[in-house]
Amino acid sequence: MGGGESPPGAWARARAAAAVRPALLLLLLLPAPLLPGCFAEPKRYEPTWESLDARELPAWFDEAKFGIFIHWGVYAVPGFGSEWFWWYWRQLKLPEFVDFMKANYPPGFTYEEFALEFKGTFFNANTWARILESSGAKYVVLTTKHHEGFNLWKSNNSWNWNAVDRGPRRDIVREMEVAIRNKTKMHFGLYYSLFEWFNPLFLEDQANSFQTRHYPPSKCLPDLYELVNTYKPEVLWSDGDGNAPDTYWNSTGFLAWLYNDSPVRDTVVTNDRWGLNNICKHGGFFTCSDRYNPGHLLPHKWENCLTIDKESWGYRRNAELSDYLTIEEIVEQLIETVSCGGNFLMNISPTKDGVIPPIFEERLRQIGTWMQVNGESIYGTKPWRAQNDTITPRVWYTSKPKENLVYAMFLQWPSSRLVVLGQPTATVGATEVKLLGYEHPLKWTSLPNHGIVVGLPELTLDELPCKWGWSLEMKNVN
Predict the structure, then answer these.
(1) What H or E segment, with its residue span, contains residue 415?
(2) 333, 304 in Cβ contact below 8 A?
(3) Within a 13 Å sphere around the CA of 446, how many CA atoms are in the beta-carbon half?
(4) Each residue of 200-233: pLDDT tens digit?
(5) Intra-chain end-to-end CA distance of the chain, in Å
(6) Cα 212–Cα 215–Cα 217 angle in degrees, nearest 5
(7) Edge-to-edge strands, sheet with 470-475
(8) Beta strands in 415-477 (DSSP E)
(9) Which residues are registered as beta bridge partners of 344?
(10) Phi, psi of 327 (to 5 degrees)
(11) Distance, CA of 398 to chain centre
(12) DSSP state, 192?
């Protein structure tokens, strides 16, 4: 009829389709197999060190190699002795700190009153960002709160002991985040001290041998969640466990959230200071101790955090010139650290007015000048099979395996203009050697067994590519 299908044929097709539908529905409900270009669900981490320590460190951190630490807080106001001023004065009653207060402040003066002078009058986040970027650093770590408990942002749990309610009356963390992210290409990181010397809740828990947990859920953990959700740091640098175990801090629970569900779960890196006896054992990268530089390759990613002022992390008005690392010392620390697989985090400490002192600015710009010439031997490199040379002292190696490049960084320009390297083995017709910052290839000869001798160009002091250390780039050496 009109060319249509007969009813029996239509009924047969309908019955066949009905039989197929349940099978199709079942297939739709089953998980689909992964096809090329598809990705599995991201790995979930359990709140245990075994699970958390298995997380791969985001690649950007190892490639960056060099960062700047900033210690800025109320301790910059007395600017005397150390950022531990309050503890040394009130708790330990060290004579030099007690005498300093007697000589300069009236009886009954409290540490909290220093916050009134912590105004940051000349603080300009954009200026800081420009100076920091001039160093060649790839990341910045700002102290949001040190052991004194003063927050550089208006924490919902800090009452009036913060930079918005007292002192500068500004959200320093926010201003720095905006400046670093809008004005530079550096990664933005935050430091946070878990404990506070004189917080009554912490002191109560401490008196109870940490069998009570009043302080972490009331102050520390809310602060950490707030910092991560609000400012989205790519480095979270924990410190100050107060001799309490990680179970007291609920560190594994917080880190599981940070790696699984936080807004920075894919990019954030953390250190190893999350509880008593955790340092150098658990965490994203190891710090092991302040100013840690083992001088040999470690199997785990690590960071050497050190101060330009050898005596303090905070600003000191009483510092002398000899207290500051020279640029030669800084370059040597950087080279040695990176050769041994570490990152180099160099600390500066601004004044109470929010000014980066000229001595720190000079060091930042000097290392930046060095990096402009030698950055290829630092950024994105991997440790080589040898970290330092066996014949010539103060020679350190890095490598870029994919490019078949090895870098030999040496800290003394030889009067003979010959650099003797005992580690590399060269091949005639394949090996090429050049000096970073110098356009012409260099001549070299092989040593009898292994090693090479590289001839440096005859240059005046003004013609040298840089002043405080040099890098040989060797292609096709073993």
Answers:
(1) none
(2) yes
(3) 14
(4) 999 999 999 999 999 999 999 999 999 999 999 9
(5) 86
(6) 95
(7) 395-400, 405-410, 470-475, 432-435
(8) 418-421, 432-435, 444-446, 452-455, 470-475
(9) 66, 304
(10) -65, -35
(11) 20
(12) E
- 269-270 and 235-239 strand pairing: parallel
Instruction: Report the predicted TM-score, pTM, of the whole model to 2 decimal places.
Output: 0.90
Bridge partners of residue 303, in order along the sequence: 343
Q: State pLDDT tens for residues 424-475.
A: 999 999 999 999 999 999 999 999 988 999 999 999 999 999 999 999 999 9
Structural tokens at position 336 = 């040695």
Amino acid at 270: T
Note the Cα 170 to chain centre separation in Å: 25
Report d(CA 148, CA 150) in Å as an integer: 6
Residue 214: its H or E element = none
- Cβ neighbours for 242, distance < 8 A, ≥ 6 positions apart: 194, 195, 202, 206
- Which two structure tokens, joined as six digits, stand for 348? 């500066």
Strand-pair category, 395-400 with 405-410:
antiparallel
Whole-angstrom distance, CA of residue 74 vs CA of residue 361: 21
Tracing tokens 């801090």 back to the chain, one arrives at 249
Amino acid sitting at position 445: T
For residue 266, give the amino acid letter.
Answer: D
